[in-house]
Amino acid sequence: MTTVRTAIVIGGGIAGPVTALALRRAGITATVYEAYPTTASGIGGTLALAPNGVAALRTVGAHEAVTAIATPIDRSALAVGRRRIDMPTLTGVPPLHVVHRAELYQVLHDQAFAEGVPFAYGKRLVDAAQTGDGVTARFEDGSTATADILVGADGIRSTVRGLIDPAAPGPRFTGLLGVEAVARHEVDAEPGTMTFAFGRRGYYLYWPEPGGGTRWGANLPQQRPMSLVEARAVPAEQWLDTLRATYGDDDPGRELAATSNADDLQVVGSLQIMPPVPHWYRDRMMLVGDAAHAPSNSSGQGASLAIESGVQLARCLRDLPDVQAAFAAYVRLRRTRVEKVAARAARINQAKAPGAVARTLMPLLMPLMVRTVLDPEKTVADEQRYVIDWDAPVTAEPALR
């Protein structure tokens, strides 16, 4: 049985509230500290929740509220030029769900708050001091907080990661920038179908939007990274002009760009990934979610893996009385899985901007690709069928940090 009774959770995005909920179910009182002065309502584009992510949400009692605001996707297709081919589906799993990040955040925040999780805003972490039996967080406003452990759920630019290991790597630029919009154009696809399209100058994906129109996301090739602030400083009309120039030769990319409204455009900034992080924990500080593992959005697993990690950390702390043993067990349960997903997504990224020869060959190779490298039983079955057994006890085993 755990000796941990209190936890500081740094970061109030997706991983933070889930981790706090899971810790409460493990008998640990957690408080979430968020750097921004208010909730993140209205911020962010659309993200995917894979079946394994929804299964992890079930553990903290949030799955029904989340799926109620999401759009289920149970079919997918691949398109190159005018060639389109349906992709095989993975049997025996619920559908993928796409959800607005802001709405997902709000549901998780409300669930945690309703269950008694305290949230403190305007608390930007600057340092943490550890003792033999606790850790004290120091915030930019001069305030402090003390608990048995500190959990860094503070995203891809994590402050906690740097406190654990000053030499830790930072995020890497994928060479792509994300833009999202809802077009008035109605694509020729059944509801619940997501199409992955390789245009002449860029990759994009789309699906019919409930209520009309087509939601689509574009990955624009980009020479240098831009922060979210820099990207949003560019006028939306300018981004829309870029989309129309990039996808003007594509079908339906041309129509999607032409019928999108600048007022509804969401620029999500340069897409970043985390390389393997050598040390996920030190003493009484631990990382969860994107702070430790942020695969490319190509994986469709970023949010789901973050949710899983919060649940698994709580299991380990619940069952193992020694903090170091619990942290080591958590890394053992998570590292191999998340790094395998990240490697798969990295391979997909390489195909998002194919050269002229590859674009010519892709329509011919598509049927073979669907039967081999895109076969879900061979690529994502283990990822999506993964379910955390909350009731199963965690045992301590030696593991590398």
From TrEMBL:
SUPFAM superfamilies from the UniProt entry: FAD/NAD(P)-binding domain
Keyword list, A-Z: Monooxygenase, Oxidoreductase
Keyword set includes Oxidoreductase: yes
Molecular function per GO: FAD binding; monooxygenase activity
Ranges of residues in domain FAD-binding: 7-343
Domain of life from the UniProt record: Bacteria
InterPro entries (alphabetical): FAD-bd, FAD-dep_Monooxygenase_BioMet, FAD/NAD-bd_sf
Protein name as catalogued: Monooxygenase
Organism of provenance: Micromonospora arida
